[in-house]
Amino acid sequence: MSDGYRVGVLGATGLVGSTIIELLGSRGFPVAELRPLASERSAGKTIEFGSKVLTVQAVSEESIQDLDLVLSSAGGSVSAEWTPKIVAAGATVVDNTSYWRMHDDVPLVVSEVNPDALEGHKGIIANPNCSTMQMVVALKPLYDAAGIERLVISTYQAVSGTGKGAIDALRAEARAVVGGYDMPPAEIYPHQIAFNVLAQAGNFPEGDDHTDEERKLINETRKILGDAEIKVSATCVRVPVETGHSETVNVETREPLDPERARQLLAAAPGVTVVDDPAAGRYPMAIDAAGKDDVFVGRIRRDPGNERALDIWVVSDNLRKGAATNAVQVAELLIQRGLLARG
After folding, report:
1. Which residues are catalytic?
2. Which CATH superfamily hosts domain 132-318?
3. pTM (two decimals)
């Protein structure tokens, strides 16, 4: 076998899967073989990886054999069925779906925040929800310096988090509004998303007044930071932006922390870029974060109603750091720490 790892990408034709494949190439990940996997519906399609054109294979007992690593973003039900089979076949799985995140024996890892959680993994590593991911990258330096008592979060989530169909719907609706055409029926979301804001990102589980996106922010934040005592209030909103989630986060710390110190901590933190000169119109924007891997933080200021709370504005590309980039970074960490065996 040539130098490198045999890597499968499950969900290879989706937005996150295709971004993972792009990043494996651009980051120089040591790939001896890349095997794109997807549903029967996508089998037979071709993708480019470097100078090669690869054919997408249907995920099956045969196609998952002889792999060292699988980066998966094929949906929760697919992951629930296939991840144990892939691990049994000898590969380590970094999974982007929500299915494994809150399992006690599965580490939920953000590369800059809790890489030590990878130690002792049992073949499955979970990637957090995209909104949680970018937020905890910004929160980690503040948590380490002063602790966190409470978070009050509002998200402004891009449609690409729902998939390619949502991008197509936004564009079709926008064309209809601008061109004066008949509005196409809303199929992806409960209502028109173009030129609108929906007070709902995610779905409402039976009997719950919070969406699943909001529950993910609450539960995953505590697990990643390793602190079940953090109080979290979350409202997740869908906005007519293609790529890039934005968040307002009110951070009540346990110890005093002034805005200038917070700015210094964030500027020095790995994976964070501070853009914070609002009087000059300089603050993070989704349109600038798109296509980049950092988490951008600005509007760092004191909450005037709470001397132990700060308000911050957090923006990141939900397809990259929010999903694909972290998955590849986790795979890189597995190699660096000697935790990814060749089968």
Report:
1. 130, 245
2. Dihydrodipicolinate Reductase; domain 2 (3.30.360.10)
3. 0.95
